[in-house]
Design brief:
Elements lengths: L3 E12 L8 E12 L3 E5 L6 H8 L7 E6 L2 E2 L6 H7 E4 L3 H4 L5 H11 L4 H14 L15 H13 L5 E5 L7 H16 L4 E5 L3 H4 L4 E6 L2 E6 L1 H5 L2 H6 L6 H11 L11 H7 L1
Parallel strand pairs: 3-8, 3-9, 6-7, 7-8
Antiparallel strand pairs: 1-2, 1-4, 4-5, 9-10
This protein binds adenosine-5'-diphosphate and magnesium ion.
Magnesium ion binds next to helix 1.
Length: about 280
């Protein structure tokens, strides 16, 4: 069995036509290897190429140059397309655009129905997916009456019901309130730790990135930084130079350190800072 979930190899993606005004290199010669079971976070300010990269990682886009492999399958090979979509599901920012049915459980069933899964198995998959995202009690509800966080969990259940090994989430909390964001972060933790799914989470919230095994920071289509949350957030000036912030508590530790306090640079939680002080 492969240990690598996704490999992005010397990959470039260009929008528009070279030499014309609309030409733009959105992903610029990127190399990434995502291990099975990994929880990867991708950071970067608007326009840095994150969404393009997300779409390359499940074959919605194919590279202009280079190759992307999902569980060993090249996304350029058309024979692999359905298998790839089943292996790596993608959740987008706006839950309203992802919900297609008028009843929660019908919505979750939509993906597996399209895959031609037998009805008895669909039933099982839908129940299991709703259990994992803790939305079972809402299975007969109308999605439009749910909160943003609940809707996004239904969208995640819809992907889960296709039984993917890997889930890619492109700013899934961007439209949610703090409660909704917490719900999604708890769901992601559960998917990774209990369900052993590979998680690729794109976000612009630094506090969400703290939960990752590894962080990539993008700018202008390139990977500018890579490392564990501690390794990345330790480099406060570099992060700021890329137009991003560090988690609030890391920033506080950084300022204290500048004032001569003996605190480590890689403080990520309030508890760590309290202990250090
Ligand atoms: P991010 O998700 O980090 O904001 P994107 O991948 O959406 O970045 O965009 C990267 C660059 O590609 C941006 O300059 C954006 O304007 C451009 N871009 C994105 N989608 C398209 C498209 N469909 N056509 C042309 N340019 C696009
Ligand atoms: Mg985006």
């Amino acid at each position: 069995m492969l240990e690598e979930m996704i490999r992005v190899e010397n990959t470039t993606y260009e929008y528009g036509i070279r030499g014309e005004e609309n030409h733009l290199i959105a992903v610029d010669n990127v190399n990434i290897s995502v291990k099975k079971g990994e929880h990867l976070v991708i950071l970067g300010h608007n326009g840095s190429g994150k969404s393009t990269l997300a779409r390359l990682m499940n074959g919605l886009l194919t590279p202009t140059k280079g190759n992307v492999f999902v569980n060993g399958m090249n996304t350029k090979d058309e024979d692999n397309i359905w298998n790839i979509r089943e292996t790596a599901g993608i959740v987008f920012q706006n839950p309203d655009n992802q919900i297609v049915a008028t009843i929660v459980e019908e919505d979750v069933a939509f993906g597996p129905e399209n895959l031609g899964i037998p009805p008895v198995d669909i039933r099982k998959r839908v129940d299991e997916a709703l259990r994992i995202v803790e939305m079972t009690e809402y299975k007969n509800h109308a999605p439009h009456l749910l909160s943003g966080g609940q809707k996004q969990r239904v969208a995640i259940a819809g992907i889960l019901a296709m039984n993917p090994e890997c889930i890619i989430l492109d700013e899934p909390t961007a439209m949610l309130d703090p409660i909704g964001r917490t719900e999604i972060m708890n769901t992601l933790k559960k998917l990774n730790k209990e369900e052993k799914k590979t998680i690729i989470h794109i976000t612009h919230y630094m506090d969400e990135a703290v939960a990752a095994d590894r962080i990539l920071v993008m700018e202008k289509g390139k990977i500018m930084m890579e490392g564990t949350p501690k390794q990345v957030f330790c480099q406060v000036d570099r992060i700021k130079g890329l137009g991003l912030d560090v988690p609030q508590v890391t920033e506080l530790a950084y300022e204290l350190k500048k004032e001569g306090f003996n605190v480590p640079c890689d403080v990520l939680t309030v508890d760590e800072l309290v202990n250090a002080l």
